[in-house]
Amino acid sequence: MTPITGVLLCLAYILGLLSTAIAWGGCGLLVIGIIVAVLASFGRRSIYRNKLPNNFWQVKPQIWLLAGLIGFSATIYIQIRTPYPGENDISKVIATNAQNPVQVVTVQGTITSTPRLTRSQRSQFWLEPFYLNVDNDISKDVTGKLYTTVPLLQATGLHEGSRITVTGILYKPKSANNPRGFNFQAYLAREGSFAGLKGKEVSLINSDINQDTNNWGWWAVRQKILRSQVHLLGVPEGVLVSAMVLGNRVVDLPSSVSDSFIRVGLAHALAASGFQVSLILGVVLAIAQRFSNRIQFIIGVSALLIFLGMTGIQPSVLRAVIMGIGALTALALERKVKPLGLILFAATLLLTINPIWIWDLGFEFSFLATLGLIVTVPALIKKLDWMPPAIATLIAVPISAYIWTIPLQIYNFGLISPYSILVNIITTIPISIISLGAFISAIAALMHPTMGSALAWLLYYPAYYLMELVDFFAGLPGAATAVGIISPLQLVIIYGLFILTCIQKWWQKKWWFVVPIMISLVFIPVWQTQASLFRVTVLAAGKEPVLVIQDRSKVLLLNSGNETTSRFTVLPFLQQQGINQLDWAVAAEPNSINSLNDWSLLLQNLSVKNFYNCSSRDRNTTITSKLSDTNCQQLLPDREISTGSTLIKRLDAQQQILQMQIQDRTWLILGEREIEKTNERLPHAQVLVWSGEKLDSSLIAAVKPEVAIAASGKLDPKTMAELQQGKTKVFLTGKDGAVQWTAKGKFEIAVETVEDKASAL
């Protein structure tokens, strides 16, 4: 098989997996393969030969047909390998009792991952269950995989391999309730899990108490390294050093530190991947250079496999390890390494092992960054030949990785890090020093913990000043700028232009023309949409009604929800819409400093022109100090405020009762508090939005809403009956998801048109 044939077949397989994002995509690839095979069979005719590249004719027609068949087969293979709940899967217990989807259970199982700390200060791990008891009523053997969280103190002493009994609430994971929101259900399904367990009490199974048979494993190696490095360095410096050698997936780095690194585009520094593998190979080959190529190969592969065991099996680490072994193989055989062929082989091999990884962001970012380093760094260094080679490389590496990953980042998150390239250049040397020192310290810790601690202590100031530098850039205005998400078609066109620029000399010469086109593909559609869009979105954000009004580049946000809601619902939605500034922010809860505290995260990430409801006694607080450049004032009763095409009036000084005139419709917003019996004063409104609590009959009769939107998953039967009796259309954000209304007058469930990231390109 020729190299061109191998490349074609590998690409056909990968394209086949990607084509599952499109209906009948595999059939389309098969048809294309047949058509190209027919064209190739008539390749001897000059009329065709002059129109297609010479490489095209080097591939036999049978190979093109085989490529089409492989692409089609890949779509079938990924369906076969897609996880589904088995006959005795623990999730079936929930499915058979749909009237009580949340159940208190006792589960026995084996921990299959390293327990990790969540943002809610609970410990999370994967549990492989083998026995289930439901309220002492149902007892059965079960299988499956459980996403399990337990109180932090209950997780003390737990590790991978521990056999435990957990009592808690068994639940089914939720799908995305907001546009482009996180689909927890799809995330667990990709991991082969279809249920979650919120544990309350944990105990070791008797056999593990009496005789600990799981006192060794890779978890023990990680713990030994972590404890040694934290001993003298402390937290967070010691944890950061450990994360830079083991990866943040097996090390609990404080969320404030990891958030800052992500915000400035340094997430790769905390992820075990290619950099660490290159470092390991460099050290190993430098030490073993006196030995033969065969010995170097054995030592190098052994080091990589040990590194893989310590970091855990992750797509990005596997990719780096496979490429590292490929480079060692070429060294042992005294052959020249072909990086493009090696990365294509690694991708094909990994996707054969687990085709679901095609939708794993870690896998995608890792391969795109590596591809950028392979194809773009040499070209950039050539352009920077007027600089010393070391400095040119220092600049070319972060630029190459950045430009190849930024389209995927915008597609998924709608964010860019404008300081990323500069920060990567500045931090390359300290990150290299810390990573090398952490690696040496880890080896020393395995031999003698005290020696490892002493070596790790030398990294205190590099780690400290690295975090200070990252925090400085993370605190600058626009550190994470929202540009809005792009469509799959835009993503394909942008990467298509990347590939054309790499393989065609004409496109390479016109790079100055290609770059503005790619930038325009990102910004012009978003700008046009924002300039003409009018839309009201009621987010699925807990019991507090949260509204976002987008009025032709002007944005109003009513309520922020609590900190969790702000972080995982409100802020991602605004960022994916390309919103960096709120023209009006309204806290409906009157005179409550707690409501202002809930706005803290949003105020850190967005600028606000006008903020309501700030009382004078709150102006000296930490929260309102962030509003120094903001027109901050109270929302007084019966005072009408104009916010673009929307008029807002508070109807009650003590309760969350707002009247909003949005174009030709009157909206009535009721807060989470219990509404007092003053319903005769409530005006008629076409749209009623409230927390989902039981409504008094007189309130419904007074308001007479045409549309009612409840910020809950279920409604009191009497309230539902009375609303339906008045022919009111009812939406439940906890069940239906976010609700959107446009100037056309239609209310729609927003998530119906949202593609699942697990099945979208």
TrEMBL record:
<dbReference type="GO" id="GO:0005886">
    <property type="term" value="C:plasma membrane"/>
</dbReference>
<keyword id="KW-0472">Membrane</keyword>
<feature type="transmembrane region" description="Helical">
    <location>
        <begin position="386"/>
        <end position="404"/>
    </location>
</feature>
<feature type="transmembrane region" description="Helical">
    <location>
        <begin position="365"/>
        <end position="381"/>
    </location>
</feature>
<dbReference type="InterPro" id="IPR025405">
    <property type="entry name" value="DUF4131"/>
</dbReference>
<protein>
    <submittedName>
        <fullName>DUF4131 domain-containing protein</fullName>
    </submittedName>
</protein>
<feature type="domain" description="ComEC/Rec2-related protein">
    <location>
        <begin position="244"/>
        <end position="506"/>
    </location>
</feature>
<dbReference type="Pfam" id="PF13567">
    <property type="entry name" value="DUF4131"/>
</dbReference>
<dbReference type="InterPro" id="IPR004477">
    <property type="entry name" value="ComEC_N"/>
</dbReference>
<feature type="transmembrane region" description="Helical">
    <location>
        <begin position="340"/>
        <end position="359"/>
    </location>
</feature>
<dbReference type="InterPro" id="IPR052159">
    <property type="entry name" value="Competence_DNA_uptake"/>
</dbReference>
<dbReference type="Pfam" id="PF03772">
    <property type="entry name" value="Competence"/>
</dbReference>
<keyword id="KW-1133">Transmembrane helix</keyword>
<keyword id="KW-0812">Transmembrane</keyword>
<feature type="transmembrane region" description="Helical">
    <location>
        <begin position="295"/>
        <end position="311"/>
    </location>
</feature>
<feature type="transmembrane region" description="Helical">
    <location>
        <begin position="436"/>
        <end position="460"/>
    </location>
</feature>
<feature type="transmembrane region" description="Helical">
    <location>
        <begin position="266"/>
        <end position="288"/>
    </location>
</feature>
<feature type="transmembrane region" description="Helical">
    <location>
        <begin position="63"/>
        <end position="80"/>
    </location>
</feature>
<feature type="transmembrane region" description="Helical">
    <location>
        <begin position="472"/>
        <end position="499"/>
    </location>
</feature>
<keyword id="KW-1003">Cell membrane</keyword>
<feature type="transmembrane region" description="Helical">
    <location>
        <begin position="317"/>
        <end position="333"/>
    </location>
</feature>
<feature type="domain" description="DUF4131">
    <location>
        <begin position="28"/>
        <end position="204"/>
    </location>
</feature>
<feature type="transmembrane region" description="Helical">
    <location>
        <begin position="12"/>
        <end position="42"/>
    </location>
</feature>
<feature type="transmembrane region" description="Helical">
    <location>
        <begin position="511"/>
        <end position="527"/>
    </location>
</feature>
